[in-house]
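Notebook, bench 3.
Goal today: get a predicted structure for Succinyl-CoA:coenzyme A transferase Cat from Bacillus thuringiensis so we can plan the truncation constructs. The sequence was checked against the plasmid map this morning, with no discrepancies at the termini. Length recorded as 59 residues. Pasting the sequence as submitted so the record is complete.
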Amino acid sequence: MELIIENCAHPMYREQLRAYYEEAKIRGGQTPHILEKAFSWHTNYAKNGTMLEAVVETV
């Protein structure tokens, strides 16, 4: 999975995908996944035009 993220995913999404995969591995299973988080990315896309999670910057 790491090779796919590093070689196929758009650079803007790599950090988010790495974090998702690490969290999914903790849950375990034959195919690590967190469906509610994956679906929330699609919901975010429909509402905001991006699957990227919101980043709050402090000034």
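Residues 2-48 form one domain. The chain has a mean pLDDT of 88.
Flagging this for group meeting.
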